[in-house]
Amino acid sequence: MLPLPSALIPVLLCAVTVWRLPSAFRPPVSPASRALWATLAAMTVGLGARSPEVARLMAEVSGIPDVALLVKPVLGLVSAVYLLDYVHAVHGCLGRVVPASRIRQALSLLALVAVLLLVFKRDGIDAHDGDPAVRIYLAVYYLFLAGSTALGTQVFWSNRRTVPSGLLRTGVWLLATGSAIGFFHTVRRVVIVLWYGDTPVDPVTGLPAAMTDFLFEPLPPAAIVLMAAGFSVPPLWMALRYVRDQSAMWRLYPLWSDLVGAVPHVVFGTPRGRVPELFAYGDRTLDLTHRAFEIRDAALALRDEVPASAGAAGAVLTTGDDPARTEARWLRAALYHRAHGRPPAGGMPPEPCHPGGFTPREEVAWLLEVAAAYRGRGGRAAGPRA
């Protein structure tokens, strides 16, 4: 792997692993979230073992010269297993065979560790490079990775259109692309291992020569980066949605506060102040929807109390006027009538005829325009609250 990706990718994976840690263990625990986190954790530890300091420490503790090189395939298998678990958890496939497969996986890993301790205890791995057993082991290892990445590619690609368009669908595209690149790389490695052994031999020194291929060498870091980016999209999407909803709650507060102050019976639950709302934790979509309903219910309650709109002499509406500004004017006038028992000077403006949005999100978008007009020209309703 190239030097710069070798240094940056473990840091990126570590950041993503730590970022997704709460979602893996926060009740109620989701099997898909936990399997996804385990996939990232195994990839992070496996790539972290490549650093010289970590490899030296592992060799001193275990007594095996190249133990870091041996740990990488084991953690690669663990990562592939949990990637399959993630796919199964998301799509509900093969759930009945997971316990039996867990037993086979545990026995396989124990056998692998025993072979590594017995065979490579005194010799470095280079001493066995090209041996038939090593070539078979590496071929099986890469075939297993190829199978998991192929299944991941098929699942992500086939479900890309079932995900809502936008950031989430982009994440699925990233996962499908990363899995496809990983599949191509592992199949290529199988061909190399079966044809040459793990690496070709240098004709001068007789030792395994490092394989340098500037065309294919960027494939592993590219696959890892794309997969990490794809796995990061759901929490990033939730964070962006939280910021968007909090911003909407903040901008709706002046209009909402005046309306529920005049018609308090429309409030869901116990209202909070504008600043305490900023520190509310969790999904704010339902709270934002409730706020939109409260504003609309308060407007309907005021409509039942104020007199009908005035005629042409009292109308404030002008040709081509903005509907949001029209509704804001009517709300100000209705609040004034509620507080003083009479219409404002000039009479009540025409009632707004905007039907509202077809979905809660459309209704929120419309009320944000009304709230902006309400905060603008004409100010907030005058007089004390009833």
CATH fold group of the largest domain: Rhopdopsin 7-helix transmembrane proteins
Strand content: under 5%
Number of helix segments?
12
Distance between the termini: 71 Å
Largest sheet: none
Strand tally, please? 0
**In the residues, how many domains can be counted?**
2
Query: What is the chains' assembly state?
Result: single chain
Instruction: List unreliable stretches of 5+ residues.
Output: 94-98, 310-319, 378-386
- Tertiary shape: elongated
In the CATH hierarchy, what is the architecture of the largest domain at level 2?
A: Up-down Bundle
Q: What is the helical fraction, as a range of percent?
A: 55-70%
Rg of Cα set: 31 Å
Sheet/helix structural class: mainly alpha
CATH class of the largest domain: Mainly Alpha
- Average the pLDDT over all residues and give the rounded result: 74
What is the ordering of alpha helices and beta strands? HHHHHHHHHHHH
Organism: Kitasatospora putterlickiae
Protein name: DUF6545 domain-containing protein
Domain DUF6545: 242-375
Keywords: Membrane, Transmembrane, Transmembrane helix
Walk me through the structure.
The chain is mainly alpha-helical and 386 residues long. Helix 1 crosses helix 8 (219-262) and helix 8 (219-262) packs across helix 12. It folds into 2 domains: 3-233, Rhopdopsin 7-helix transmembrane proteins (Up-down Bundle), CATH 1.20.1070; 241-375, no CATH class. It has helices at 3-25, 31-48, 52-62, 67-91, 98-119, 132-158, 167-196, 219-262, 274-278, 285-303, 323-340, 360-375. The protein has 12 helices and no strands. The chain is elongated, with a radius of gyration of 31 Å.
